[in-house]
Amino acid sequence: MDLSIIIVNFETFEMTKQTVESVLNQSHPFDYDIYVVDNASSDGSFESLQKTFFKESENGKIKFIQNPENKGFAQANNVAIKRANSDYVLLLNSDTQVVGDCLERSMHYMKNHPDTGVLGCKVLLPDGNLDKACRRSFPEFSVSFYRMTGLSKLFPKSERFGRYNLTYLDEDDTYEVDCVMGAFMLLRSSTIEKVGLLDEKFFMYGEDIDWCYRIKAAGWKIIYYSEAQIIHYKGSSNSKKQNKRMIHEFYRAMYIFYNKHYREDYPMITTLATYMGIWSICQFKLFKNYITR
Predict the structure, then answer these.
(1) Which of 10, 151, 166, 225 could form a Cys-Cys staple with 146, CB 3.0–4.6 A?
(2) What's the CA gap between 7 and 34, in Å, rounded?
(3) Predicted local distance difference test score (pLDDT) of residue 267
(4) What's the pLDDT score for residue 238?
(5) Does residue 293 have a pLDDT over 80?
């Protein structure tokens, strides 16, 4: 098999159905299969997906996996990665839609650039604007500081202050970055064999940044490839109902990533400042969410 596409479902039947169909409705010049991994949905969405794509399941095009409990996005993807037998693996969010020949272009780039370990495409929001999270720098102290203090928003075209989402770079160019987003990550299986699976300590945020960090450290390039596109219906999934949990996991991921990759490189005062910053902003976001509700 050339490509295995992994889509994680959690109570998002319509969105997941649309994502799968956006792949199936295109003609692809390579062999592929799709793994739909359900994270213990209780709304019947998994059964509905099995019924909808029964024919594709019977001929082996789609493989269904049902997790008995929800242990997070990273764990669900790892389950399918372990079963996949292909040269390339694509992580594709269940709230996305593949546009045109996105997969063909992406596969062609990977095959012609053997030093690329991960490729992320241009990710557009439904209104046509770029999902800024699709190309990023690693969240080292200075990058995160500029982001948290709002300097990155005040000076988006500054190479110094705009590093968080690389807003000073042209979104229509292709170039090497630190990391791309988990909504669309195309990897070589040989890369995964070398660096290992997604870190399951991350529940639903940060696992993509951590993976890119390890892959880049192993000598592979991380590429933002603007000539391939998907639409990301960000915030449209059922997980939006879990705002408090999402906020907690977002800042928990920051804590895990810092401890794993940066703690030993900074003095204690910087570490304490980082912890305080993460905790303070998390509490502010939780309070804001409570007031809004």
Answers:
(1) 151
(2) 7
(3) 86
(4) 44
(5) no
List, as one string, the DSSP characters of 95-149: TEEE-TTHHHHHHHHHHH-TTEEEEEEEEE-TTS-B-GGGSB----HHHHHHHHT
Residue 193's contacts (CB-CB under 8 Å, 6 or more residues apart) are none
How many alpha carbons fall within 13 Å on the CB side of residue 240? 9
Place of tokens 């987003």: 181
Among the residues of the chain, which ranges form H helices? 13-24, 45-52, 54-58, 73-83, 102-112, 141-148, 151-154, 189-195, 207-217, 243-261, 268-292
For residue range 206-226, list pLDDT tens digits in order: 999 999 999 999 999 999 999
Per-domain boundaries in the chain: 3-135+171-233, 242-292
Q: Is the pLDDT of residue 242 over 60?
A: no
Separation of alpha carbons 279 and 250, rounded Å? 11
CA distance 82 to 249: 25
pTM here is 0.91
Whole-number Å distance between alpha carbons of 240 and 232: 14
